Amino acid sequence: MTRIHLTRRRTARIGLVLAVVTTAVWASPASANSPDPIFGGSLFDRDQPLIYSWQTGKVPPTWMQNGINAGAENSRKLTLATNAQGTRIPTFTYGSGGTSKISMEQTPCNPSNLLAIACMTRSAPNSFTVKLNKHDMQLQGFTLKWCSGYAFETPPASEPASGCYDVANITLDELGHVAILDHHDNSVAGSTYTDAVVQAFARTKDLVGWNADVYGRCDVASLRAQYGMTTSSKLYSTCLTPRVAPSLAFSASPALTPQFGNVTFSATLTTGNWPSDYGDRISLKPAHARTVILQRAPIGSTSFTNYLTMSPGTTAGTYTATVAIGGTYQWRANFPQPTNEGFLAARASVAQTVTCQNC
User: Alpha-carbon distance 278 to 122, whole Å?
Assistant: First the structure.
């Protein structure tokens, strides 16, 4: 599949990106922010190493190479085990024998549209190309300026306070396209520019988001749905709309115990069944290392109070607590709605009665 990323300056300070491919989009309410749309076509493999090298005869200058490599490194950050948003996207790494090619173009990368500053193609699951137009290229109605290129003009110039593009940011944007992402839709309510790097408007220096060096939450939401998470303890993006209630199973054993006998409470938290557009990478998966509360109430009461926080079990998505029983109560597990990820609250549908003998 071929995808060309076109950018033009709408004003002296904002770049407008024109999409030349119409793609499938996520199904989500128009009143809420939503993950990036995605292209049709194949995915790369999860965790696939994609090694790039410089195109022969079109090798970028060192200052541009540095920005490209920084953009690739910023993409790889999403795959790290230490990243709370860890996602199993392909990893982009420079290597002299890489089959994927990145180049600096001396002539416009898309001759049929002289608004382009960068172009890309994706040929999943094998390779990709990214092409960046050279610094100082005359395009339709503007001169392309890369912020890091001023020092290498003849004579050298100082980087201005505004009006130029960040190589690393544009590279990260292009690599998001390579993975599968189309442009984020900023027209929906609740959306802000910093929700995504893969944008229809590439911003120039001094505007919010012009040098963003990590994928935004709505980029991550789409990448997660397509490629999955690195571990079950990673957080789900708050850009997932509508939020879906996870499933919380709960049991108590034994249900009858002498006074101060130990009872083990067990809960299993899974992600629930997300809408089909989100893909099966995040549906019905264990959700580990969350806050699951054990609650109790007197028999016949509907007023439950928090008793303790359950401990994560050895199996992903499980939680346990052992309690010395001093009376007969109803017990249940409760998962409060988190503020830092795309879950609703959940509680066990049936409370468990534990009877204390001779209490």
Answer: 22
Within the chain, which residues score under 70 in pLDDT? 1-32, 188-190, 241-242, 275-279
Distances in Å between the alpha carbon of 343 and those of 59, 182, 270? 46, 25, 11
Distance of alpha carbon 40 from alpha carbon 261, whole angstroms: 58
Amino acid 357: pLDDT: 94
- Count of alpha carbons within 13 Å of 151, Cβ hemisphere only? 6
Which tokens sit at 225?
């749905």
131 closest CA partner among 116, 145, 148, 142: 116
Picking from 147, 146, 92, the residue whose alpha carbon sits closest to that of residue 117 is 146
Residue 245 pLDDT: 80
- By CB atoms closer than 10 A (0-12, 13-18, 19+), residue 185 is buried
Orientation of helix 217-227 relative to helix 167-179, angle to 10°: 30
Residue type, 137: M
The neighbouring-strand residues paired with 247 are 270
CA-to-CA distance for 350 and 304, rounded, in angstroms?
13
Read off the pTM.
0.86
Which domains occur in the chain, in start order?
2-227 (3.40.390.10), 247-357 (2.60.40.1930)
d(CA 334, CA 336): 6
Neighbouring residues of 327: CB distance < 8 A, sequence distance ≥ 6: 356, 359
Q: What is the pLDDT of residue 188?
A: 67
Q: Is 167 helix (H, G, I), strand (E, B) or coil?
A: helix
The partner residues of 308 in beta bridges, in order of sequence, read: 294
Q: Give the pLDDT of residue 7.
A: 41
Would you tell me how many other CB atoms lie within 10 Å of the CB of residue 59?
14
